[in-house]
Amino acid sequence: MRVFFVLIGLLLAQSATQVLASESSHKKTEAHTSKKDAKTDTHSSKKTSKRTDSSKNTAGSKKSAHSKESKKTAGSNKSNKRYAYSRHHPATRTQGPAPEASLEEIFPEGHRLTDDEKQEATAIGLYCDSGNWKGALKSANQALKRHPERWWLQAARAAAAANLNRPKDVIDAVNAALAWNQGDANKQNVNQLMLLKANAQSRLNLKRDAAQTYLDASKLLPKDPYSRAGAAWLFATANDQQLRNGSAAVQMANEAVKLTGEKDATMLDVLAAAYAEQGNFALAQKWEAKAILKGDSQDIPYYQQRMQSYQANRPWRETEG
Questions:
Q1: Is 1.25.40 the CATH number for 240-321?
Q2: What is the share, in percent, of the chain residues with pLDDT greater than 70?
Q3: What is the secondary structure of 179-244 as a DSSP string?
C-alpha cells in the first residue's frame, strides 16, 4: 500500500500570507481567499462524488470504483516527473512562492505501513482533503501523544498549523519532525518541511532566518525552483537593506525561471522584482510583462501594480509582517 504525502503539498498553498498594503487589507484578502478556496474544494468534491454515484448502483460497487480510481490516480502520479510543477499561490499572497498541491510519497520505497500508521494517515488525510485543518491538527496531536517518534505526524501538524495561520506552531512542528526523522523521510520531504519553516519565519518577520532556510532547502534539492524563488523574493523585496542583494536575487530567480521553463508566472514575477532591485528596470518590465501574460486573472492586478512601480523606476518592497 502506498501513502502519498498530500499533507505537506496541500499546506503550502496557504502556509503564509503576504501583507500587500496594510494589515487590515491583508486580513480581508486572506479571509476572502480562504472562503473562496473552501467553496471551490467543496463544489469540486460534490461534483466528483455525484459522477461516481451515477456510475454505480450499489454501495459495494461504489467502494470498488473508489478503490480502483485511487489506485489509478496513485499510479498516474508516480509515473509523472518527480517535480511536476502544479499551480501555486504566487508571491502576491505568500512570503515566497510555494506549491499549491503536489502529491509526494510520505514514505520512501520499501517502507511497510503498520496498521496504526495506516489508520493515522487515513484519518488525517481525510481532514486535509476536506480542508478541515482544525480537525487535521487535532487528529495529528492525538496521534502524537501515542507515537511522538513518528516524524510524519509532526509534518502533518505543521501542515495543519500553516493553514490555520499559526507560524510559531509550524516552526515547532517542523523542528520536531526533522529531529525525529531517522532517515525515513526522503530529501523532497525534508525540502518541503524546510519550505514550510521558511514561510513561517518570513510570516513572523524573521526575514534573515527565512532567507537562510530557503538557501538550505535549495542546496538539498538542486532542481527545486520554489526554494530559489523564495530566497530571491526576500533578497529583492525585503525592507531590511542589509538583507537585500540584487545580484543574488537575480541569480536565484533566473535559476527558478529556467527550472520551470519560463512558464511559471510566479517565477517570472520574482525575476522582475530581482532585476528591479538591481536597478535594471528595463528587464524588470520585460519579465513582469511576461508574468502578466501567463498569470491567472486573480494575480494579474498584483503584477500590474508592480509593473507600474518598475515603470516609475521604483523597486518593489515587501510590507512588514
A1: yes
A2: 64
A3: HH-SS-S-HHHHHHHHHHHHHHHHHTT-HHHHHHHHHHHHHH-TT-HHHHHHHHHHHHH-S-TTT-
